[in-house]
Design brief:
Layout lengths: L1 H4 L1 H23 L13 H50 L11 E3 L11 E3 H8 L10 H20 L1
Antiparallel strand pairs: 1-2
Helix pairs in contact: 2-3
Length: 159
C-alpha cells in the first residue's frame, strides 16, 4: 500500500535520473566532449540540470498529492452515495397508508410516535423529496371530464 502512495513521486525520480543520464550521454556522444561526465564540470550546465531535475521530481510529488486528494474525494462521494441510497431505501421501503378515495397519506405509518395526521399525497411527496407536482388529465379521464361538464351544462340550460 505504501508503494501505491508514492508511485508518482518515484516515477518522477526515475524520469529525473533518466533525464540526467541521457543529457550526459548526449553531451558525450553528440557534442564530442572529452569524457562521460555524470556531474558536469560547467557550473551553468550543472545548475540547469539540477533545476530541471528538481522540477521533474516536484511534478511527480504534485501528481502524487493530486491523485491522493482525488481518490479521497471519490471515496467521500461514494460514501455519501451509499448513505443517500440507504436513506432512500429506508424512505421508500415498507407500507404507506393511503386513503383509497381522496389519496391522502397517513403520516403515522412514516412516524409512529406522532398523532394520526392525514396529509395530501402531493404535499407529502413534495415535502419529503425534491419533486414538484403539476396536474392534468390523462386521455381517458379528460374524455370523462368533458362528458361530465357537458351533462352539467345541459342540466343548467334545461332549467
Amino acid at each position: 500500500m505504501r508503494y501505491r502512495q508514492i508511485k508518482y513521486s518515484l516515477s518522477g525520480l526515475i524520469v529525473a535520473v533518466t533525464y540526467w543520464l541521457s543529457d550526459s550521454s548526449i553531451h558525450y556522444l553528440i557534442y564530442d566532449e572529452t569524457g562521460f561526465e555524470v556531474i558536469p564540470s560547467s557550473f551553468n550546465e550543472l545548475w540547469m540540470r539540477a533545476a530541471i531535475f528538481i522540477l521533474i521530481i516536484s511534478f511527480g510529488i504534485y501528481v502524487d498529492i493530486s491523485v491522493k486528494r482525488m481518490n479521497k474525494l471519490y471515496d467521500d462521494r461514494y460514501q455519501i452515495q451509499l448513505k443517500l441510497d440507504q436513506a432512500m431505501t429506508k424512505l421508500l421501503s415498507g407500507y404507506l397508508s393511503i386513503c383509497c378515495v381522496c389519496k391522502k397519506v397517513n403520516k403515522k405509518t412514516i412516524n409512529p410516535d406522532k398523532d394520526v395526521v392525514w396529509e395530501d399525497i402531493d404535499y407529502f411527496i413534495s415535502k419529503h423529496t425534491d419533486m414538484e407536482f403539476t396536474h392534468g388529465y390523462c386521455p381517458e379521464c379528460g374524455i370523462k371530464a368533458k362528458e361530465q361538464i357537458g351533462v352539467i351544462m345541459n342540466n343548467r340550460s334545461a332549467r
